[in-house]
Structure formats: structure tokens, C-alpha cells
Write a structure and sequence with these properties.
Layout: E1 2-3, E2 15-18, E3 29-32, H1 45-52, H2 57-65, H3 72-76, H4 80-96, H5 103-127, H6 133-143, H7 148-160, H8 164-186, H9 192-200, H10 207-222
Parallel strand pairs: 1-3
Antiparallel strand pairs: 2-3
């Protein structure tokens, strides 16, 4: 875990994960932006840590890099909706795991969910409806408790990275949909550990391929 370097903290996101090197010489790093701690919401710290660390990105990416018998582009590459979807799903999974020790931490997790829902509106507003920066910032301010500095930094990110902001909620909704389907079809045979293994044991996948993967898991465990 490291602080974001001074030279990029002004434009870097609140927190992010940097995967380890392929040869293991550099560890995975969970970066936290300390540019202005007066604007950091303490209630969100546990949720962000679950997203970036375990059971989120660090866990998922480490699992992927341990896979054998797959080409390098699958071992070290990724698909945004899958990776960020798993990260966002992990924030809610952490609640089931008892990570959030008080109602404030759970509230922080829910506020992060709102943040990612806002991204759906802003990404499409900017790139499909041609919203300008002021419109995007105004919508963000009206619908969240995020600081002005973080809002401006986030909006600039959405302008420069079309489609990435929508990947979080789109991926989470897909994983949640697949879990609900597995629970419904397997009934008492459903085991959350088996479901998570089905989601993770082939590494990052396009969402339609993930759907097929979970379908095979359900068929195998229904017997």
C-alpha cells in the first residue's frame, strides 16, 4: 500500500490498484491519493479498500496470474466490465463478509454505489448527449456528497476515457444477475464459494463469455 506520488496526485483518482509484474519482482500496489485529506470521506475508506484489495482487484488479479495453461494475453490482460464489475461487486460482498464494522462504513459502501451509478449518467451524457464539463459537474454535485475536487477530477477522467466509467455498474449488475440465477436454479445446492470460483477461475472474460461460463457451472452442479 502506497501514497500516490506527488507528481501525479493532482490528477490521479482517489485510489487505484497497480498489478504485480509478470515475474513477481514487483508486488501489487494499492495506491491511495493523499492530495487533500480534508476532502476524503472516511466512511468510504473500507469500501474502497475492499474494491482495490481483497476481495476486489488484488484478489481477482492474483488469482488470474496464478492460472496455468492459458495464453499470456488472458493471464495478464483484462476486460474492463469484468474487472471493475468484480471490484464493485466486492464492495457489497465485503458487507456479507462482515468487513464493515459499523453503520457508517456500510453507508460509505452505499455512497460508493451511488457514485458508480452517477458514472452511468455522466459517461453517456458526455459522449452520447454532448454534455459539457459544467453540465457534468453540476449533475455530479446535485446527486452525491463527493468533494468538489474529486468531482472535477472524476469528470475530467470521464471525458478522457469514454466507456470506462460505465464498466463498473454494468459489470456488477451482470455478476449479481448471474449469482441470482445460480441461486434460483441450484437452490440448496448453491454454494457461494463454487459460484465465485466459476466467476474467477478463467480470469477476466467478456461478459457474454462469463454468462456461458456460469451457465456451465450451473449445469454441472444441478446434477
Amino acid at each position: 500500500m502506497r501514497a500516490v506520488e506527488k507528481w501525479r496526485e493532482g490528477t490521479a483518482s482517489t485510489a487505484f490498484y497497480n498489478p504485480p509484474s509478470a515475474d513477481g519482482s514487483r508486488p501489487g500496489i494499492y495506491y491511495v491519493n493523499l492530495v487533500d485529506m480534508n476532502q476524503t470521506q472516511k466512511v468510504q475508506v473500507a469500501g474502497i479498500a475492499a474494491h482495490e484489495g481483497a476481495p476486489g482487484h488484488h484478489f481477482q488479479i492474483a488469482r488470474q496470474q496464478e492460472l496455468t495453461g492459458i495464453p499470456k494475453f488472458r493471464k495478464f490482460g483484462g476486460y474492463g466490465a469484468y474487472i471493475e464489475g468484480w471490484g464493485l461487486y466486492s464492495e457489497r460482498l465485503a458487507n456479507e463478509m462482515g468487513v464493515y464494522k459499523d453503520p457508517y462504513a456500510r453507508f460509505g459502501m452505499l455512497s460508493l454505489q451511488v457514485w458508480r451509478a452517477i458514472r452511468l449518467v455522466l459517461d453517456t451524457g458526455i459522449h452520447a448527449k454532448r454534455w459539457n464539463r459544467d453540465q457534468a459537474i453540476a449533475y455530479f454535485k446535485a446527486n452525491s456528497s463527493v468533494s468538489d475536487k474529486d468531482i472535477a477530477r472524476e469528470v475530467d477522467r470521464y471525458f478522457n476515457w469514454p466507456g470506462q466509467a460505465t464498466s463498473y455498474m454494468v459489470g456488477q449488475l451482470k455478476i449479481a444477475e448471474l449469482r441470482a440465477r445460480a441461486e434460483r436454479e441450484l437452490g440448496p445446492r448453491f454454494d457461494i464459494r463454487d459460484f465465485h470460483e466459476a466467476v474467477l477461475d478463467q480470469g477476466a472474460l467478456p461478459l457474454d463469455v462469463l454468462d456461458e461460463q456460469v451457465g456451465r457451472y450451473i449445469a454441472a452442479h444441478r446434477q
